[in-house]
Specification:
134 residues; alpha+beta; 2,3-Dihydroxybiphenyl 1,2-Dioxygenase, domain 1; nine-stranded mixed beta sheet; 22% helix; globular
Length: 134
Amino acid sequence: MLGRINHIAIAVPDIALAARVYAETLGARVSPPQALPEHGVTVVFVELPNTKVELLEPLGEASPIKAFLEKAPGGGMHHICYEVDDILAARDLLTGKGARVLGNGEPKTGAHGKPVLFLHPKDFMGTLIELEQV
């Protein structure tokens, strides 16, 4: 069911600083910031030959990243995103095996304009999992 790793997401308190560190210190190619109000985040993507790193900054007071950063003020790994061919089939298979989908269980549109779902971290060894249909 799982395809390749689409991205690894890191929550950061200052996306401009984090993007600059990746670009200037690590020599990485970094996308322009993209606000995603429906997810409560601003993101940039660090483009790598084999995957991407998504840097997430809170957008608004209700941002789930804000709560994450209250626990880890310096930032840290937030989630890992795996690609799937059919997000609804993946959801149905996983929920049939007892996994919990966050939210109302319906896909939202992610940063790449594709359907995404998040799986409860308690079902996956403490790791928040994002599935993205490709």
